[in-house]
Design a protein that fits this description.
With 494 residues, this protein is an alpha/beta fold. It is 35% helix and 19% strand. The protein has 18 helices and 21 strands. α1 packs parallel to α18.
C-alpha cells in the first residue's frame, strides 16, 4: 500500500491506538489534540498527593491490549504490570446483603451456594450458553468492520447471529438463568458500563459479565494512566507527531471528500485521510457545517439515543469501611424506578445507585501514607432537567455532592464527611469540555439494538470520502477493549 498522510483528531485511546497501527504500516500520521495531554476520557490528575484516574478504572479483555502492543513489536506484560482482582467486585444490595463476583470458578460456586444456592445450576447454564455464543459474537459481530446490512444478511453465520438474544433485553436474558432477582441484577447491571439500562440493552451484551467471569477483571498496578502513557510513548517511537493544545475548528470538505482540517488559529493541515477520535455525533455537528451534511443532519444527530452521563466524586479520605473491595457497586432500594428516572424521564434519581472504586486497596502509593482514594461514580441523565429547565451543574454540583456523601454515610461510610481530606468534582459539563462528548454523554451512543453492529454509525463516513471514525460512538461500541477493536477495524477499512 502506498503511504498516505493521515490526520487523526484527538489523542484518546482510540486515536493513539489507530495511529500506532497506521504508522507501523508505514503511513505518515499526525494527531491533533486540544488538551495539553493525551488520554481523552482516560485522563489523569494529581491533587494533594493523590493520583487520580478520572475515567476508566479497570481492564477487561486484556488480550486486546496485548494484541496492540504485540502488533507494534512490544511485550505489554513487561511494560505494564497487571493484577487480577479477586473478587472482581463486590455488589452491595439495599437489603444489606452482598455478593462477590469471582473469575475463579470454585470461589464463584461457593459464593453462589452462600448467597443463592438455587441459582448454581443457572450459573452453569449461563456459562455454557455464552461459551457457545462467544466466538460467533466476537468473530462476526464485534471484531469485523460492520459495513452494510447485506454483510449480515448474506453471512453464513446469520442463523448463529440471530440466536444471540439480540431481540430481548439483558434483563430478560438473565431472567432465563437466575431465579433470585438480585442475581438477575448481578448479571445484567454491566449494561451500565455502556451507559444504558439492562432493560433496553440487547441480551447479546451479556457477553460482558461472561467475559468478566472467564477472563477476569484486571488493574494496572500503577493505574490506568500507566497504559495511556505507554501507548503514547509507543506512538511517538513509531514516528507519529502529536500536536497538543491545538483545537480543530472544522474538517475541510471539497467535492464530498475530506481533504484536511482547519485549526482555531486559522491554519490549515492537509491530508489524504482524516480520522476523528472525537465523539462521532460531536464531530458531525461541530466540525462539519450543516449545509454540507445530507445524511447526518442536526435532526438525525439529535434523534440518536445517547447514554447516560456520570457525576464523579474523587475523595481523599482518612478512613474507609472494612467491607469494601477494590470495586464496589451500591444498589438503591428501587432500581427499577432508578432506571426509569435515568433513561425514560431524564430526572435526577431520588435514590441513586453508585459505584465506588478504592484503588488504594491494591496500591497504597496512589494516596498519601495512611490515606485512601475513593472514586465515586453516580449515573445521571445526560439531558437532565429541573422544572423544565436544563440542570445548571455549576450551580447545583456542590449540593449534589453533599447529597451523595450523605447517601454513602447511610450505606456504611460512617462519618465520611469529617474524614474527607481531598475532594474533586466532575459533572457532565466537564466530560463534554474534557473529551467532547455530545450532551456530556460519558459513554457515547447507547448500545440499543438499533445502534449496534451495522445499525451503529459507521467508521467509514457514509457521505464523505476519506473520512473515518474511531472510538466509543462508532463500531463496535463503548469501553476500552471495544475502542481498541475499533482502532483495528478502522485500520482495516483504511
Amino acid at each position: 500500500m502506498e503511504p498516505k498522510k493521515i490526520l487523526i483528531i484527538g489523542a484518546g485511546l482510540g486515536g493513539m491506538a489507530l495511529a500506532c497501527r497506521l504508522a507501523k504500516q508505514g503511513h505518515r500520521v499526525e494527531i491533533v489534540e486540544k488538551n495539553p495531554v493525551s488520554g481523552g476520557r482516560a485522563a489523569h490528575k494529581k491533587v494533594k498527593g493523590y493520583s487520580i484516574d478520572l475515567g476508566p478504572t479497570f481492564v477487561l479483555m486484556p488480550g486486546e491490549f496485548e494484541e496492540l502492543f504485540t502488533y507494534c513489536g512490544k511485550n505489554m506484560r513487561e511494560l505494564i504490570p497487571l493484577q487480577l482482582l479477586s473478587p472482581c467486585y463486590r455488589l452491595h444490595f439495599a437489603d444489606s446483603t452482598y455478593f462477590d463476583m469471582h473469575s475463579n470458578l470454585p470461589e464463584m460456586v461457593q459464593e453462589l451456594k452462600r448467597y443463592s444456592p438455587t441459582d448454581v445450576q443457572g450459573f452453569f447454564d449461563f456459562l455454557s450458553y455464552h461459551h457457545t455464543q462467544y466466538e460467533t459474537i466476537y468473530t462476526h459481530f464485534i471484531s469485523k468492520p460492520a459495513t452494510s446490512l447485506a454483510q449480515i444478511v448474506f453471512s453464513p453465520q446469520l442463523f448463529d447471529l440471530m440466536n444471540t438474544d439480540g431481540f430481548i433485553s439483558m434483563w430478560d436474558h438473565t431472567g432465563k438463568f437466575f431465579k433470585n432477582q438480585n442475581m438477575q441484577l448481578a448479571f445484567s447491571f454491566q449494561s451500565m458500563y455502556l451507559g444504558e439500562s439492562p432493560h433496553t440493552t440487547p441480551g447479546t451484551y451479556s457477553m460482558i459479565p461472561f467475559t468478566e467471569l472467564t477472563q477476569g477483571v484486571w488493574f494496572p498496578t500503577q493505574g490506568i494512566r500507566s497504559i495511556i502513557d505507554k501507548i503514547e510513548k509507543m506512538t511517538l517511537e513509531l514516528g507519529v507527531k502529536i500536536h497538543y493544545r491545538k483545537t480543530v475548528k472544522s474538517i475541510l470538505i471539497e467535492s464530498g471528500k475530506a481533504t484536511g482540517i482547519q485549526l482555531a488559529d486559522g491554519s490549515i493541515m492537509e491530508a489524504d485521510i482524516v480520522v476523528s477520535n472525537l465523539d462521532l455525533p460531536a464531530t458531525y455537528s461541530k466540525l462539519i457545517p450543516s449545509s454540507q451534511r445530507k445524511i447526518m443532519t442536526d435532526k438525525k444527530i439529535n434523534s440518536l439515543k445517547y447514554s447516560c452521563s456520570a457525576f464523579m466524586l474523587y475523595l481523599g479520605v482518612e478512613k474507609i469501611p472494612s467491607n469494601l473491595k477494590h470495586h464496589n457497586v451500591f444498589f438503591c432500594v428501587d432500581y427499577e424506578k432508578n432506571f426509569k428516572q435515568l433513561f425514560n424521564s431524564d430526572e435526577m434519581p431520588e435514590d441513586p445507585s453508585f459505584y465506588v472504586n478504592v484503588p488504594t486497596l491494591t496500591n497504597s502509593s496512589l494516596a498519601p501514607k495512611g490515606k485512601h482514594l475513593l472514586f465515586v461514580l453516580v449515573p445521571v441523565p445526560a439531558k437532565l432537567k429541573k422544572n423544565g429547565q436544563i440542570w445548571d451543574w455549576e450551580k447545583e454540583k456542590e449540593a449534589f455532592a453533599q447529597f451523595i456523601i450523605g447517601k454513602m454515610e447511610q450505606r456504611g461510610f460512617s462519618h465520611l464527611k469529617k474524614h474527607i481530606r481531598m475532594k474533586e468534582i466532575y459533572t457532565p459539563n466537564d466530560w463534554e469540555s474534557l473529551a467532547g462528548m455530545h450532551f456530556g454523554s460519558t459513554f457515547g451512543l447507547s448500545p440499543t439494538f438499533m445502534q449496534s453492529s451495522i445499525f451503529r454509525p459507521q467508521q467509514k463516513s457514509e457521505e464523505f470520502k476519506n473520512l473515518y471514525f474511531v472510538g466509543a460512538s462508532t463500531h463496535p461500541g463503548s469501553g476500552m477493549p471495544m475502542v481498541l477493536i475499533s482502532a483495528r477495524t478502522c485500520q482495516e477499512l483504511i
